[in-house]
Amino acid sequence: MIKTSGIVIGTKNKNKKEEIRKILSGMSLPLLDLEDFNNVPDVIEDGVTFEENAAKKALQLAKFCKLSVMADDSGLEVDALNKRPGVLSSRYCGEDTCYEEKCAKLLEELDGIPVEKRTARFKCAIALAGPEKLHFVVEASCEGFINTELRGEYGFGYDPVFYLSEYNQTMAELSPDVKNRISHRALALGLFKEGLKKFVVNSVH
């Protein structure tokens, strides 16, 4: 059962946390931050899938916080690069490089590849775990293409190069309100909310 003191958002990433809070606003259970706890350990993301990494983070952080934790893992898959950078999206082109450099390196790798062959998707997996066990994991994706240049001032990460043909804009050109309806994280959080409802119902029967 989820403790009544709430669910901890298992990320230190400010941008992710803001998106999660906006999309999950209105939930009856309060959302807590990792910053509410001291000496939170880093979780090594060594899984081969987004689901594995999300589950590992949720479980380890739930054991540490002694509360229910939701944790996500997300990234970009580019078909022309055999689905790279994938689970290594945050470490692509070096762990300490900024995303502008990562995007530039991605465009360099795709140089000369026509737009129709630059298909890609953002993926997001979200897990919910308690201190004793993993409760569930959901995953969603958002399909698009890799643009030939960086465009847009909103968003973060690979958003400036992720082109959505139905909007004729990159993810970084979409307003936050639109992004928070159609992004991989928004879709995964929608599934997470449904999973949470079922989990709570099953827990009281």
CATH topology: Maf protein
Number of domains: 1
Sheet bearing the most strands, described? 8 strands, mixed
Label the overall shape.
globular
Number of strands: 8
Structural class: alpha+beta
Low-confidence stretches: none
Look at the structure and give the mean pLDDT. Answer: 92
Rg measurement, Å: 17 Å
Assign the CATH architecture: Alpha-Beta Complex
Distance from first to last alpha carbon: 11 Å
What percentage of amino acids are in beta strands?
15-25%
The arrangement of helices and strands along the chain is EHEHEEHEEEEHH
Notes on the structure:
- This protein is of the alpha+beta class.
- The protein has a single domain (7-203), classed as Maf protein.
- It has 5 helices and 8 strands, in the order E-H-E-H-E-E-H-E-E-E-E-H-H.
- It has helices at residues 14-23, 50-65, 99-109, 176-182, 184-203, and strands spanning 7-9, 31-33, 68-78, 84-85, 119-129, 134-146, 162-164, 169-170.
- Strands 1, 2, 3, 4, 5, 6, 7 and 8 form an 8-stranded mixed sheet that branches.
- It is globular, with a radius of gyration of 17 Å.
- The relative contact order is 0.15.
- It comes from Candidatus Scalindua japonica.
- Its cofactor is Mg(2+).
- Belongs to the HAM1 NTPase family.
Question: Keywords for this structure?
Answer:
alpha+beta; Maf protein; eight-stranded mixed sheet; dITP diphosphatase activity; metal-binding; hydrolase; EC 3.6.1.66
